[in-house]
């Protein structure tokens, strides 16, 4: 059940995201609703405007918490600063890059935070859109381009739109989950938008291994993909084991300090977490429920 409080939070999220789109119509299309419905919501009216399913879909898209879980405040960790700087550099210059690093260090959080505050920047969770068609249609929908027509029209309209707007940036998270056909289409889309669109691919070590293995096996497209993304893999965490352990604990400390309930022993939280940001979050959730 979507409560009035939930509806209020969803409306606030819609309002805060509006600046990232050139028009109400584009924003409405990205949310999957008609412009007329969007205008009603914009005026603060919610009664019988959307179905429960529509509210849930928009809440999911905008990352609105419906269960009353704690809000994760921004902590400017080394990972946050590094990825933010890379995203800004790519978007401003129409460049591309790849980050392959450990899971659970704040990659996704940072990317989502960045795109919420930057015009024409979108985030794609590739694990949810593995096939070629779902992948391209998802990008189109995020930009408010028609995503429901013939695939060839969706693709052409998307290319045209990306070449028409200022400094678009597409962040591809969990990129290693894309199917082979989607990787080839990604290469084609990069070619079609060269110098017009920035791309940033993120994943764990599996992404690096997949690309390198495919290149070694001379699988068509992967050498070109790596070349288009700068011919190198970026990494935040240190290679040395002891340095990496210290790095992760320091990140956990920074995050815990910002998000800890009053009176929390931050050092104890860091020790118990072992440097895992997910464990820090879980411990805070458990503390809140006690």
Question: How would you explain this protein's 3D organization?
Answer:
- This protein is of the alpha/beta class.
- The chain has helices spanning 4-17, 24-31, 35-42, 52-62, 78-93, 107-116, 132-142, 151-162, 180-192, 205-216, 222-228, 241-259, 266-273, 277-289; strands at residues 96-100, 121-125, 169-173, 198-203.
- The chain has a 4-stranded parallel sheet with strand order 1-4-3-2, sandwiched between helices.
- The chain starts with a helix and ends with a helix.
Give a brief outline of the structure.
This protein is α/β, with parallel strands linked by helices and 290 residues long.
List the helices and strands and how they pair.
Elements: H1 4-17, H2 24-31, H3 35-42, H4 52-62, H5 78-93, E1 96-100, H6 107-116, E2 121-125, H7 132-142, H8 151-162, E3 169-173, H9 180-192, E4 198-203, H10 205-216, H11 222-228, H12 241-259, H13 266-273, H14 277-289
Parallel strand pairs: 1-4, 2-3, 3-4
Helix pairs in contact: 1-4, 2-3, 5-6, 7-8, 7-9, 9-11, 12-13, 12-14, 13-14
């Amino acid at each position: 059940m979507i409560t009035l409080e939930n509806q209020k939070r969803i409306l606030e999220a819609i309002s805060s995201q509006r600046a990232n789109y050139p028009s109400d119509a584009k924003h409405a299309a990205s949310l999957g609703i008609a412009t007329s419905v969007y205008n009603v919501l914009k005026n603060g009216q919610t009664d019988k405007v959307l179905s429960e399913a529509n509210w849930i879909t928009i809440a999911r898209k905008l990352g609105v918490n419906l269960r009353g879980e704690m809000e994760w405040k921004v902590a400017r960790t080394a990972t946050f600063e590094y990825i933010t700087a890379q995203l800004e550099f790519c978007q401003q210059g129409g460049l591309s890059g790849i980050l392959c690093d450990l899971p659970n260090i704040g990659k996704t959080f940072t990317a989502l935070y960045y795109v919420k505050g930057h015009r024409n920047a979108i985030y794609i969770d590739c694990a949810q859109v593995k096939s070629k068609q779902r992948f391209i249609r998802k990008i189109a929908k995020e930009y408010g381009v028609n995503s429901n027509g013939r695939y060839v029209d969706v693709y052409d309209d998307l290319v045209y739109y990306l070449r028409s707007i200022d400094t678009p940036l597409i962040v591809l998270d969990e990129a290693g989950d894309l199917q082979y056909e989607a990787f080839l289409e990604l290469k084609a889309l990069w070619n079609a938008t060269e110098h017009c669109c920035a791309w940033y691919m993120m994943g764990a070590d599996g992404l690096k291994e997949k690309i390198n293995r495919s290149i070694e096996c001379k699988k068509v497209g992967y050498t070109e993909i790596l070349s288009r993304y700068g011919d190198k893999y970026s990494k935040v965490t240190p290679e040395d084991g002891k340095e990496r352990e210290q790095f992760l604990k320091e990140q956990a400390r920074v995050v815990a300090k910002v998000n800890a309930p009053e009176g929390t022993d931050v050092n104890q939280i860091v020790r118990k977490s072992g440097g895992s940001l997910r464990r820090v979050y879980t411990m805070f959730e458990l503390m809140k429920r006690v």
